[in-house]
Amino acid sequence: MAVSATAMNEEPRVVLSARGLSKSFGAFRAVNRVDLDIHHARVHALIGPNGAGKTTVFNLLTKFLQPTEGTITLLGTDITKTPADKVARMGLVRSFQISAVFPHLSVLDNVRIALQRPNGLSTQFWLPTSALNRLNARADELIEAVGLKRERDALAADLSYGRKRVLEIATTLALDPQVLLLDEPMAGMGQEDIGTVSSIIRDVAKTRAVLMVEHNLSVVANICHQVTVLQRGEILAEGDYATVSQDERVRLAYMGAEEA
User: CA 183 to CA 254: how far, in whole Å?
Assistant: First the structure.
């Protein structure tokens, strides 16, 4: 059966959205009436100069901060006043700028720990350690998927910084998120690790939504379907990378006005 042009061009569904999202700290307005739509099976970048409000938006979406105004919807449910732990259980999971792994545990054990909650083992402290062996098959799948198979039994502390970030992505994926928020995933990485992580993010976005804050504009250009540019807590421009990179307001925000 032929597929209509409308169906072929149909935009993926919105899985995370914000309307009028605002945050004030006293008299300072850090985020001002931001509207966002994050789509399934798409990589969406949030970019902007330092102090633009990117991390504050992340903290609002993941409920580490409560909005002063506005609404947030996840998978059709209003989560504006929902606690952060419940939002995570609903499928909205984030990484942080600083790598968060257990340094004195192996790569395998880091991933197995992350797998405990979705497999109902996180609160069953009376079970022997051997009970975690049932998680090995899924842990090995995730480890191989992110290219850490050779380091499976290595201590996380012995990994390079870039490989620690890769491990963190594996532990995040272990939670089986519907929406994955990555806060500067390429920060501090060498070129080889940037290529690896870019490929991982592309693969991840085939089956879930990805929203990322990223300063590496080459990465944004290569893997992101949609880009939102923030400046002083407000949306300056939005569209694909080709569109926003040609916007004169974006050029001025990043490079400043040229002197006459």
Answer: 19
Q: What's the CA gap between 162 and 148, in Å, rounded? A: 11
CATH topology of domain 12-91+178-252: Rossmann fold (3.40.50)
d(CA 115, CA 23): 34
pLDDT tens for 112-135 read 988 886 554 444 443 445 566 778
Beta bridge mates, 19: 71
List, for the chain, all residue ranges whose pLDDT scores fall below the cut of 70: 1-10, 97-99, 117-132, 255-260
Q: How far is CA 46 from the centre of its chain?
A: 10
Tokens in use for 169? 């992505």
- Within 8 A by CB and 6+ apart from 22, the residues are 29, 31, 32, 33, 34, 67, 68, 69, 70
User: What CA–CA distance (Å, rounded) separates 82 from 255?
Assistant: 39
Q: Are 231 and 47 in contact (CB under 8 A)?
A: no
151 neighbors 106 (Cβ within 8 angstroms)? no
* Separation between Cα atoms, residue 38 and residue 73, nearest integer Å: 10
Q: Residue 226 and residue 79: Cα distance in Å, rounded? A: 23
Shortest CA distance to 82 belongs to which of 64, 70, 57, 58? 64
Tallying the residues shown for the chain, one arrives at 260
CA–CA distances in Å: residue 154 to residues 158, 200, 217: 7, 21, 32
pTM of the model as a whole? 0.86
Hey, where are the domains in the chain?
12-91+178-252, 96-176
Is the CA virtual torsion 167, 170, 171, 172 positive or negative? positive
